[in-house]
Amino acid sequence: MIVLQTLGTRGDVQPFLALACGLRDAGLPVRLATAPRFQAAIEAEGLAFAPLPGDLLELIDTPQGRAAIAGRHRLLATLRLLRGRGPMFRALLEAQWQAAQGASLLVCHPKALGGAHIAERLSIPCFVALPLPALAPTRAFPSPLLPFAELGPLNRASHALMLRAADRLARVPLRDWRARRLGLPPAGRGAAPAGVLQAYSPALLPRPADWDARVHVTGAWVMPARPWSPPAALAAFLAAGPPPVYLGFGSLPAEDAARMGALVAEALALAGQRGVLATGWGGLALAAPRPGLHVIEEAPHGWLFPRMAAVVHHGGAGTTDAGLRAGRPSVLCPVFGDQPFWGRRVQALGAGPAPIPYRALTAPRLAAAIREAVGHPAFAAAAAQLAARMAEEDGVAEAIRILRPTL
């Protein structure tokens, strides 16, 4: 049994769901462990599900969590938010242990903190996986979790610093749990990873030369295409005029979703564009209908994005991949984490204008970026070239090729 464990927002879960579907289709037994809010989507694919506590998601959606994400010092605020959450971490570790029973191989997101320790106890291989290049130090660029484009000789050290900081978050609960539950020496770091799977497209970022053979860039883990029929209102809106601009900030909650909804609606009007606004999990809201603007909760990006003139989003790894895979210019409005990194990559690849930090968004500034993205053919041409390269990749198949020899 291959057990996948992940935690976080939809962007953290959907790649693992895509991998689970690929493993199932390859005839391999698989179980996906994550928060209960994703259970229905997982079981709809006919996959075995195991629950991990959703406390982290609930914490992010509190006023304190929203403030931490939207604030000026987001990393420090998030670390402070998580400090003292020993019971939350202990519950997660116990759920991971239960979900791993019967496993012969683990594939874990870094937020599934116990993966390496469970692998040590069960004497099975464990791969760590993430859709961004944050798990293996390199001299080529700084950690994508830091807001720096270049740190020169400190690039490699910045990766080590972020990995060490992540280790310290739950160090005390982990030590206690290793000894009490697993019967292992408290100070251990768990089994060394059998490999590192970085599930993003090499078309977006070349593989650094200083990564060793255990570090793999597989390509993005994309859900298999499913037939999907749009609601009648969305289909009618798309048919009623030229391709609109997509605007959505994914799973990220906003402190004032109505204000952000009004801002992006005004930006569209100033840019002279129609738009599709995706409310997601609360990042955007619209108080009243606006001409030329259609509101949806969500729609499959693989279906929707090819029908857009451009996509405006927060810069999550999955949404960035989907926009470029659709061959559409992208305007990124990064909030935190790896999002500024992907904003710089999109700009460097010529597939969109300079990113606009979420905190610096104004209607005139966003309108100017939308006009630039839609009006300059060079952006569309670069995005189309990237899409052609990405279409040749099969990240799920590549991941399965790497995993098979360890079974």
Automatic annotation (TrEMBL):
Sequence ranges assigned to domain Glycosyltransferase family 28 N-terminal in this UniProt record: 2-135
Coiled coil start-end: none
Name of one Pfam family that matches: Glyco_transf_28
Ranges of residues in domain Erythromycin biosynthesis protein CIII-like C-terminal: 292-400
PANTHER family: STEROL 3-BETA-GLUCOSYLTRANSFERASE, STEROL 3-BETA-GLUCOSYLTRANSFERASE UGT80A2
UniProt-recorded name of the protein: Glycosyltransferase
Organism per entry: Falsiroseomonas tokyonensis
